[in-house]
Structure prediction request, 191 residues.
Amino acid sequence: MLNMIIFGAPGCGKGTQSKLIVDKYKLTHLSTGDLLRSEISSNTELGVIAEKYITKGNLVPDEMIIEILKKAIDNRPDKSNGIILDGFPRTVAQAVALEEMLKNRDMSTVVLIDLHVDNHELISRLLYRGETSGRCDDNLETIKNRLEVYISNTVPVCNFYQNLNKYKAIDGMGTIEEIFNRITLVLARCT
Ligand code: ADP
Prediction:
């Protein structure tokens, strides 16, 4: 069973690469951003709270997202398959909670793949996406805050996985296919 994390700054291509990885390795895609956006569009109590954080480019509270992810893991349709986590963990507390919740389910992560993309490129990709995505957080002011939050709260997660010997950095610049090839090479060594 391949359980993995796709990691990197907002706009690094996590979602795009996840789709290709899911097709090739038949994993269940769990994107916390998508889970939150679905709570928002269904106008649930959680969604109303989450939207306030997301619109500003801040992280939603750890306890909230950890509960949402736990439910999504337990409700995934095919339990024989591995999972690809996209957008989680985003803090060290989330990483600790993730490893614990997987252990309790006789699962564990195999690798965290960190996609490295220049800041300049990230901003232009997010602004371009904002023209069509309709996302409330793809505007310049919010993007800048998301990148700051990424550096201060999320980058320390790399160290956590380095210490577990599960960290792999990948060059996230280039064509979608080039980047996907780099990922498959890493996964070939992990599986
Ligand atoms: P991106 O990686 O492009 O910023 P996501 O769709 O992964 O986009 O996340 C959008 C927003 O949802 C984040 O800026 C944050 O507010 C919230 N979010 C998603 N995942 C998490 C998480 N694991 N912890 C806290 N907040 C999260």
Observations:
- Residues 10-11, 32-33, 36, 53-54, 57-60, 65, 87-88, 90, 94, 137, 146 surround adenosine-5'-diphosphate (CB under 6 Å).
- The mean pLDDT is 97.
- Residues 98 and 104 are 10 Å apart (CA to CA).
- The radius of gyration is 16 Å.
